[in-house]
UniProtKB/TrEMBL annotation:
<protein>
    <submittedName>
        <fullName>Exodeoxyribonuclease-3</fullName>
    </submittedName>
</protein>
<dbReference type="GO" id="GO:0008311">
    <property type="term" value="F:double-stranded DNA 3'-5' DNA exonuclease activity"/>
</dbReference>
<feature type="binding site">
    <location>
        <position position="155"/>
    </location>
    <ligand>
        <name>Mg(2+)</name>
    </ligand>
</feature>
<feature type="binding site">
    <location>
        <position position="36"/>
    </location>
    <ligand>
        <name>Mg(2+)</name>
    </ligand>
</feature>
<dbReference type="InterPro" id="IPR036691">
    <property type="entry name" value="Endo/exonu/phosph_ase_sf"/>
</dbReference>
<feature type="active site">
    <location>
        <position position="109"/>
    </location>
</feature>
<dbReference type="InterPro" id="IPR004808">
    <property type="entry name" value="AP_endonuc_1"/>
</dbReference>
<dbReference type="InterPro" id="IPR037493">
    <property type="entry name" value="ExoIII-like"/>
</dbReference>
<feature type="site" description="Important for catalytic activity">
    <location>
        <position position="226"/>
    </location>
</feature>
<keyword id="KW-0479">Metal-binding</keyword>
<dbReference type="Pfam" id="PF03372">
    <property type="entry name" value="Exo_endo_phos"/>
</dbReference>
<keyword id="KW-0460">Magnesium</keyword>
<keyword id="KW-0378">Hydrolase</keyword>
<feature type="binding site">
    <location>
        <position position="8"/>
    </location>
    <ligand>
        <name>Mg(2+)</name>
    </ligand>
</feature>
<dbReference type="GO" id="GO:0006281">
    <property type="term" value="P:DNA repair"/>
</dbReference>
<feature type="active site" description="Proton acceptor">
    <location>
        <position position="256"/>
    </location>
</feature>
<feature type="active site" description="Proton donor/acceptor">
    <location>
        <position position="153"/>
    </location>
</feature>
Amino acid sequence: MFTIATVNVNGLRAAAKKGFSEWLAATDADVVCLQETRAEPGQLPDQVREPDGWHAVHVHSEVKGRNGVSILSRTAPDGMRVGFGEAEFDGSGRYVEIDLPGLVVASLYLPSGDVDTPRQDEKERFMAAFLPYLVELRDKAAASGREVVVCGDWNIAHREVDLKNWRNNQKSAGFLPSERAWLSRVFDEAGYVDVVRRLHPDGPGPYSWWSYRGRAFDNDTGWRIDYHVTTPGLADRAHTAVVERAASHAERWSDHAPVTVTYDWPAAGDQAQS
């Protein structure tokens, strides 16, 4: 079995002080993907930057205090790549990949957007460039006998069952028809699989993000925007998927919760020996 968790930490330094470090010490995950770390590696405490038992890859944004993605792996990666070959975004701290035996693992923080603003334009440019890259990644991985999982905060709720108040958000960034159609292309044209939805086909949710405003968390007024998006061969081996929702509002260390999937997949170390 091989377990992968993904979570937007909403600032890694702050999350580490509020419970992330304890969660990491207790998790059974083999790989943990982080988004919105908001820190350069040198700004992180030693135990957060290089936690015991983990090989850490941190990618920060050229704009201080923004974005940032990381991957923690119990097995040393064979290689890594930052960005996806698009000059506008390769320094933005939004995408990193590592190679493990038989598997490419990526951590993605897709722009959130904001309707009728330059932020939405940025999101649309990112999506336009990222889709062909996903096709390229799929084909390269297949040629080398690897599967792919792109974990992270995709900042799009794909279907009505993926957010509580979908009727009121049809003109909101994250649930726009154009964004949802683009995500459908990731699945239908590029051939990837939404693993959590496959394992939980009916919904609602399971939600992975709740606003800090009001009583969104207490009322489970959430959005499902954090995904494991995989190639079909890995999706077929997905065994369980859970959102590690905090027991109470006070125990949250991010406005997102970890999304953790266990695959019937040889551990990377076992694959290397086989």
